[in-house]
């Protein structure tokens, strides 16, 4: 085996692994793959035409990012974030994403801005067409595209992970029917970026994340020390002595 063969083999394997990860993330973004769904290695290998080793690597990487949960002797599952984990994700987004928007406003060139405008146009198209799955995916991806345009690969990795965990949290804890970012807010952020107004882009993003958080019920269920009596509105009676 020469060096070229080894190199080609590694590249193909890496590409397959990326493809599997990409498709799983896309399905999560579109809410087609719900939290808690089992991801069977054999089945994924069959579907993608790759070995179990490649599937296992893709799943291990997703597990590292908290998107897949690996249970000993039981296999891999799509993560189901708890309310506390969902709160942590929202808190992280509230800190990181205004910085990403600000960095995009500072460092975005003409191509980056065109890309953002194209993305907004796509969001509007699918919104008009009422293609809900595509809208949910695109509004989620907007946040990753912003990190790409900001030109910071660490932001891109972080946002990909946060966005996937957000999608899963929204599926579990959304208050209403709306399961995508509020309309028009992405457009306003891109306008601020286009003007090079970093402060305004950050402010708008902060507000946007607050709206996303307000659409979710991630508070812990209220403790009811009084128990069943309080819930049923009756006063507990003492048991008569035997
Ligand atoms: Zn958004």
Automatic annotation (TrEMBL):
<dbReference type="InterPro" id="IPR008920">
    <property type="entry name" value="TF_FadR/GntR_C"/>
</dbReference>
<keyword id="KW-0238">DNA-binding</keyword>
<dbReference type="Pfam" id="PF07729">
    <property type="entry name" value="FCD"/>
</dbReference>
<feature type="domain" description="HTH gntR-type">
    <location>
        <begin position="14"/>
        <end position="81"/>
    </location>
</feature>
<keyword id="KW-0805">Transcription regulation</keyword>
<dbReference type="GO" id="GO:0003677">
    <property type="term" value="F:DNA binding"/>
</dbReference>
<protein>
    <submittedName>
        <fullName>Transcriptional regulator NanR</fullName>
    </submittedName>
</protein>
<dbReference type="Pfam" id="PF00392">
    <property type="entry name" value="GntR"/>
</dbReference>
<dbReference type="InterPro" id="IPR036390">
    <property type="entry name" value="WH_DNA-bd_sf"/>
</dbReference>
<dbReference type="InterPro" id="IPR000524">
    <property type="entry name" value="Tscrpt_reg_HTH_GntR"/>
</dbReference>
<dbReference type="GO" id="GO:0003700">
    <property type="term" value="F:DNA-binding transcription factor activity"/>
</dbReference>
<dbReference type="InterPro" id="IPR011711">
    <property type="entry name" value="GntR_C"/>
</dbReference>
<dbReference type="InterPro" id="IPR036388">
    <property type="entry name" value="WH-like_DNA-bd_sf"/>
</dbReference>
<keyword id="KW-0804">Transcription</keyword>
């Amino acid at each position: 085996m020469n060096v070229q063969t080894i190199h080609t083999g590694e590249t193909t394997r890496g590409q397959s692994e990326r493809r599997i990860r990409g498709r799983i993330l896309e399905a999560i973004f579109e809410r087609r793959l719900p939290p808690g769904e089992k991801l069977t290695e054999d089945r994924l290998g069959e579907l993608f035409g790759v070995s179990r080793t490649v599937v296992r690597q893709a799943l291990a990487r997703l597990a590292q990012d908290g998107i897949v949960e690996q249970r000993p002797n039981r296999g891999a599952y799509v993560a189901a974030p708890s309310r506390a984990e969902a709160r942590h994700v929202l808190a992280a987004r509230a800190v990181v994403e205004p910085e990403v928007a600000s960095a995009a406003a500072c460092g975005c060139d003409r191509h980056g801005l065109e890309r953002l405008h194209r993305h907004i146009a796509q969001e509007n198209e699918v919104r008009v067409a009422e293609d809900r799955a595509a809208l949910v995916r695109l509004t989620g991806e907007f946040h990753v595209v912003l990190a790409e345009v900001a030109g910071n690969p660490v932001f891109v990795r972080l946002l990909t992970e946060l966005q996937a965990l957000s999608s899963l949290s929204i599926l579990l804890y959304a208050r209403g029917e709306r399961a995508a970012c509020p309309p028009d807010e992405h457009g306003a952020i891109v306008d601020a970026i286009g003007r090079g107004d970093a402060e305004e882009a950050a402010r708008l993003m902060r507000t946007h994340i607050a709206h996303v958080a307000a659409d979710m019920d991630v508070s812990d269920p209220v403790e009811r020390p009084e128990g069943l009596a309080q819930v049923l509105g009756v006063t507990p009676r003492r048991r008569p002595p035997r």
